[in-house]
Amino acid sequence: VRATIAALEAGGARARYASVDVRDPEALGAVLADARDALGPFDTLVHGAGVLADKRIADKPTEDFERVLTTKVDGLRALLEGTRDDPLRALVLFSSVAARWGNPGQSDYAMANAVLDAVARSEAAARPDARVCALAWGPWEGGMVTPALARHFAAQGVPLIGLAEGAEAFVREARAGAGAPEVVLGAPLSGRPEGDRRFEARFCRATHPHLADHAVKDVPVLPVVTVLDLFARAARALRPDLSVARCREVQVLRGVPLEGFDEPPGRAPSFEVALRLLSNGRGATYAAELRDELGARYRAQIDLRPELPAGPAAPDAPAGLTERAGPLYGGCLFHGERFRVIRALDGVGDAGAAGTLVGTAAVGWPGDGWVLDPALLDGGLQLAVLWTERRLDGHALPTGLGAVHVYRPGPVEGEVRAVVHGREAAAGRAICDVSFVGSDGRLVAALHGVETHVRPGTTAPDLRPR
C-alpha cells in the first residue's frame, strides 16, 4: 500500500488509504467525509470489494453465504448512499463472469454479482451523463486466483487475464463515456466463441490395446461407444459438479479407421474433441464433435444434470425368442476377445433379443475414469446386430443412435441382462431399443433408436428355426 501511494504521489496525484467495512454505512460515511474534506467531492466511484467462501450449497454455512452476498450488495448500497450528493461522472462495479454462467461452489458470489449487474443497468438509466458499468471479469493472474486455482483454470483451458492487460481494460472501460452497462472481460480465446473448449485425443496400441479387437480387415476401427465416453469425459471435465445423464442425437458421419495404431503414443494420429456450450441452468448441455484433418467424424449432444434420474423398472423381454444356431462370434459379430462381452444369449426373435453381458472391467479394458461403460454399451449394439441378422438375413453394422440414457454412471460390476426391443426392419435398415437391467431389476442404462444397416454383399445363412 505504501509503495502504491508513493508511486501515485510521484506522478502528481494525492492519495489517502483507509480500512473500513464497506457494509457499515456509518463507518464508511465517516471515511468518505474525511476524504471529501481533504480532496474535494468524488467524481468517480469504483466498487471492487468482494470475498469468496466457495462450497456447494448443501455444505455452505449461512454466515458464509451472507458474508459473500453482503460484501458486494450491502457494500454497494452503502457506497451509493455515501456519495449521493457527489457529482459522479463514472460508476464502475467489479462484477464476475460467474454472474452470467455460474461456477461450481459460487452460488452466493454469482448472485451477488448478478445484483451488481442489475444495479448497473438501473443506475445507467438514472445517470445518462455518467459512465456506469458492471465489469464481468474472468479470472486474473493474481488477487483471488491462488496458484492452485490458476492450475485448475489451466487444466480446463481457461486463460487468465494478465495484471497489466486487466488494468488497461479497466481504464479503457471507465473512460469510455456512454456505453453498455454490462461488459464481459476475459483473456483472448483465440477467436473461439465463449463456452467452446477443445481437447486432444490419440489412440494407439500402447494406450488402447483393446481396440485391436475391434478391427475390420485387420485395421482397428474406433467404436462409437469409445467416442461417446470421450465426449462424456470432456463434458465432465468442464462441469465436474454435474453427472452425464444422456448422450443424444448421435451422428456417425464417417467411421474412423486407426491407420497409425502401431505408432508410439506421441506419433499416433491426433483427433480433436470440440465442445460447445448450448445451455446451462439446472445442468448443462454441450454439442460435441470428434474431428481430424478430414473434418467431423462423430457428433452428439451431452446432457449433464445435478442428479441422475432413478432407473425405471425393466421392460418385459419380447416374446418368441428362440435359440440362435452357430457360434456367437465370428459371423456377423467380428469382435475379438476384449469385445466379446455377451456371456450368454437367451434367444433372438422377430420382436427382439435378450442376453447376459459384462462390462469394461470384466474384459480388461485398461485405464480408469470411465464416465460410461463403453464395453457394456457395445454389447448392446452387438445384440442389436444379432436381431438385425434375424430380421433381415444379413450382416449389419450400427450406423446411428438416438440416445444413451445413463442411470448409474461408470463401469458395471458383474453381469447385466440386456433386452432388445425391435421397432422396425425393412429394406436393409432396422431400428431397435436396448435396455440394460441391473440385479435389482431396474435399468442401469438404455439405448434408444439404435439404427443398423445391412452391409452390402453380405448374406447370413438362414438361421430361422426349421
Fold topology:
Layout: H1 2-10, H2 25-39, E1 44-47, H3 62-82, E2 90-96, H4 98-101, H5 107-126, E3 131-137, H6 147-155, H7 163-174, E4 182-185, E5 197-202, E6 215-216, E7 219-220, H8 224-238, E8 243-252, E9 270-281, E10 283-292, E11 295-305, E12 342-349, E13 352-357, H9 374-392, E14 396-406, E15 416-426, E16 429-437, E17 443-454
Parallel strand pairs: 1-2, 2-3, 3-4
Antiparallel strand pairs: 5-9, 6-7, 8-11, 8-14, 9-10, 10-11, 12-13, 13-15, 14-17, 15-16, 16-17
Helix pairs in contact: 2-3, 3-5, 8-9
Structural features, described:
Helix content is 27%, strand content 28%. It is elongated, with a radius of gyration of 30 Å. α2 runs parallel beside α3 (62-82), α3 (62-82) packs parallel to α5 (107-126) and α8 (224-238) runs antiparallel to α9 (374-392). The chain is α+β, with helices and mostly antiparallel strands and 466 residues long. It has an 11-stranded antiparallel sheet with strand order 5-9-10-11-8-14-17-16-15-13-12, covered by helices on one side. It has helices at 2-10, 25-39, 62-82, 98-101, 107-126, 147-155, 163-174, 224-238, 374-392, and strands at 44-47, 90-96, 131-137, 182-185, 197-202, 215-216, 219-220, 243-252, 270-281, 283-292, 295-305, 342-349, 352-357, 396-406, 416-426, 429-437, 443-454. It contains 9 helices and 17 strands. α3 (62-82) links the parallel β1 (44-47) and β2 (90-96).
